[in-house]
Amino acid sequence: MTLWRADLLSDTVTRPTPAMRQAMARAEVGDDVFGEDPTVQALQERVAGLLGHEAALFTPSGSMANQLGLRLHVRPGEELLCDSLAHVVRAELGAAAAFSGITSRTWTAPRGLLDPPDPIALLQTGVGPYQVCTSLVVVENTHNFGGGTVQPLWAIRQVRAATRPRGVAMHLDGARLWNAHVASGVALAEYAAHFDTVSVCLSKGLGAPVGSLLVGSADAIAEARIWRKRYGGGMRQVGILAAAGLYALDHHVERLADDHARAQRAARAFADAAPGCVDPETVETNIVVLTTTDTGWSPAELVAAVAAKGVRGYAAGPEALRLAWHLDVDDAATDYAIDVVTTLLRARPPPCSTVPRNGPQPGPRPESLTLAGGFATSRPGCARIPHTRRGFRAQQSRMRPNPSHPPGASRPAGRFVVLSPCDESFVMRW
Q1: How does residue 348 score in pLDDT terms, banded at 50, 70 and 90?
Q2: Which residue from 73, 144, 256, 264 could staple onto 136, CB 3.0 to 4.6 Å apart?
Q3: CB atoms < 10 A from the CB of 69, how many?
Q4: How far is the CA of 66 from the CAs of 23, 223, 231, in angstroms?
Q5: What is d(CA 195, CA 72) in angstroms, rounded to the nearest whole number?
Q6: Torsion, Cα of 257, 262, 266, 268 (10° steps)
Q7: How is residue 395 annotated by DSSP?
Q8: Which domains are delineated in the chain?
Q9: How many Cα neighbours within 13 Å face the side chain of 85?
Q10: How confident is the model at residue 345, as a pLDDT?
Q11: How far apart, in Å, are the Cα atoms of 334 and each of 67, 92, 299, 307, 325?
């Protein structure tokens, strides 16, 4: 296992603290499928109370909690609405369609922030047999791929006022609702009051090893329990995991402010090193998204460069690097990450030294190679064809012949161009 000086890949990488492990070891357990695990019951009751709903259901993952919530509100062939960066459409592998026959439509939301006219304009109800009926609007708070943004309460209220009279339900993906609560000061129950169902996660900033919960009405949760079993989420003596959640609620919620402060400090340092890569004013919680467009780095290049120095990040898109602060990243680790990232941001990326996937091969210097679009090169060096909106642009392409192929053949099967990992590396063969 790699020992990272600062593991900022995600707030999901946290490990239980020694005190949390002790609480897990002491947990009273029973068969939860039969409703006999007292620790699970205690956790469910506590979370339902915190969020102001009648009941809650423990699930092994946030994705399952979300998918159960969607299933409750949307029949096969009907649609949900959410923004294009939402976790339920971007990071749950098409589960709504695959499991429940749900279609999805999205709106564009800069930084994932909810703007009420966007979902309201997409609502379609009472359309008969001619168009897909909207059954659900999904909101994510905080917004992961938006950079940990906190959804404004006024916007949530406006969307709720538009959906309720039209019979459209609302689901809150509150995987990081704890962060929104700590950052904004808005009570958890105040956020949750505007949604029919809410999912919350224990295994991100709160540091539990496993688990999320879905909250809603008693009837909704009773139905969700049936679907949880169908999805393979019925667990037995799961109180060991629920105990970690109870401990986290007691000890790890308010400390999220420390993660937010460290992320903010890092964002200011990054902005000083590479103006325009991040606006510190937009960093509200524990996530910092760096835009690499004007830095000379691609996200994958920068991820590899910081990893070589013991800092782990996540390439969140063709122009975005995400860093997430959490329970296991203290001030010292933050200082180290700041030093590594700012040093690299101030420097241009070094020349690539890409080699073929099957290792270096002997052979003569390659003759010129012409690619689609008329680009040609015979220069040695790394093979790098950056992706642009207009296609691929050839730079310093390198070609090596296959030594096993007879010279002079018209289509040497072993020739290839290796593309830099920063440009979504692949091998072109011809």
Answers
A1: confident
A2: 73
A3: 29
A4: 27, 14, 12
A5: 13
A6: 50
A7: B
A8: 31-251 (3.40.640.10), 256-346 (3.90.1150.10), 353-430 (no CATH)
A9: 19
A10: 96
A11: 35, 30, 20, 15, 8
